[in-house]
């Protein structure tokens, strides 16, 4: 597994919660949106297991809805627990991102 894959695996759940939190989304659309943000190496095959786990953990709910172009689709939305999990992810991400950005910018020089 590449370093990029390992890093992405750790944050993909939070990215998925964030996208679903912006608007109800179905699996394939989620894949397209992630790719649109530059995560082209995220496959549908890695998204659906996460969606199933998030549903089991009651962080998201799926509702079947009629599609304008084809069969019904399962649209996912955040539950109140999912909103809390997203807020926690954002908090933890910021506490990691800011120091790492400073380290990268300063090359380890703390002055």
Descriptive notes:
The chain is α+β, with helices and mostly antiparallel strands. It contains four helices and three strands; from the N terminus they run αβααββα. The chain has helices at 3-22, 27-36, 44-56, 80-106; strands spanning 25-26, 60-67, 70-78. The chain has a three-stranded antiparallel sheet. Helix 1 (3-22) packs across helix 4 (80-106) and helix 2 packs across helix 3. The chain is elongated, with a radius of gyration of 16 Å. It starts with a helix and ends in a 5-residue tail after the last helix. The model has no long low-confidence stretch (mean pLDDT 91).
Quick recap of the structure?
63% of the residues lie in helices and 17% in strands. It has helices spanning 3-22, 27-36, 44-56, 80-106, and strands spanning 25-26, 60-67, 70-78.
The profile of the biggest β sheet is:
3 strands, antiparallel
**Unreliable parts:** none
Number of helices: 4
Strand content: 15-25%
Can you give keywords for this protein?
4 helices; three-stranded antiparallel β-sheet
